[in-house]
Amino acid sequence: MLAHSWRISLLLALGELEVVDREMEAYGDAAERLHQQRARAQALFHRCARLLMAGAFDEAEQLIAATAEYAALLQEDQILGMRLAALVFVMREIQGRLGELEAAVQQFAEAQSAMPVWRCGLMCVYLQTGREAELRREYESLAADAFASLPRDNLWLPSLAFAAEACAHLGDRRGAQTLRGLLEPYSGQNVVTPGVAYIGPVDRYLALVAVTAGDEDAAARWFAAARRKAAATGARPTSARLALDQARALHDRDPARAAELAAEAVSEAEAVGLTALAEDARALVGLGGPGPQISSAA
User: Domain ranges in the chain?
Assistant: First the structure.
């Protein structure tokens, strides 16, 4: 069962969604047949991850609520508990609600010093809640050794992805060059965590650091590749986010195209209930309120 779960993670990283769905179904059937409670909980996490990837947040919330029946197991099994926490983190991050998790993420970051991905997750909390001083402190601590303190384990790519977002926000050109070199060998893959939380295409983070480093041509190529990857895997929240990312990148250089992309981001975000993302897209280019005006503009 553990090997099957690893296979699902690897297939999702490669974007083989049809095979992923078959493997997830087979995993769930085996968990029931073998009466393995841990595997049953993991099967539920698999289903939740796929719903989040597609933007079915209400259904994902219901599945997360269903984990209550595994409460005792989650308390006993630290890894399983952290996988559930990772799913909730990914959901709240795309919803723009990470502030709700600050205490929990801080606790994980302090308790799991050997897993700096939680420290990177804390950067995401600070970024989303506008805590610039705290964000800069955490980021500069990681960047001081060119991110060498991040262990090259199965959480390395998620750690680099979170670092890339902070790097882009802070405008660190030197860090952007370093992160580009670390991420570039994984271009074309998806960033996932064990268990399986989908975070987005590696090419999205490459585009962000390319923009930060001033390489507009590379950024355009990676944005296009990331958008194709997200569309091919039905990752609508990621498609909305990528449209907003690119609108921000083009805001000063090509305002007309930035407005088109922002309208696209609003349309996609509203379709899956991402209110905060839609508001950010409107604010970027001064679009009007919600409604048919934005949809028709897209």
Answer: 2-234, 235-298
Cis bond upstream, residue 20 (ω within 30):
no
Q: How far apart are CA 204 and CA 200, in angstroms?
A: 7
Instruction: Compute the average pLDDT of residues 13-19.
Output: 94
| Confidence check: pLDDT of 179 > 80 | yes
Residue 229 scores a pLDDT above 90: yes
Cα(first)–Cα(last) distance of the chain, in Å? 45
- The pLDDT, as a whole number, for residue 288 is 52
Pairwise CA distance, residues 151 & 292, whole Å: 47
Counting other chains too, the contacts that 212-221 makes at CB distance below 8 Å and 24 or more residues apart are 212/167, 212/168, 212/171, 212/172, 212/173, 212/175, 212/176, 213/173, 213/176, 213/177, 213/180, 214/173, 216/249, 216/253, 219/249
AA letter at 33: R
Could you tell me which residues come within 8 angstroms of residue 80 by beta carbon, excluding any fewer than 6 positions away? 38, 41, 42, 70, 73, 74
Would strands 197-201 and 190-193 be described as parallel, antiparallel, or unpaired?
antiparallel
What is the DSSP annotation of 143-201? HTTTTTTS-SSTTHHHHHHHHHHHHHHHT-HHHHHHHHHHHGGGTTSEEEETTTEEEEE
Q: What is the CATH number of domain 2-234?
A: 1.25.40
Asked if residues 224 and 205 have their Cβ atoms less than 8 Å apart, the reply is: no
pTM for the model: 0.93
Whole-number Å distance between alpha carbons of 35 and 256:
57
Phi and psi torsions of 200, nearest 5°: 140, 170
For residues 42 and 80, the answer to whether their CB atoms sit within 8 Å is yes
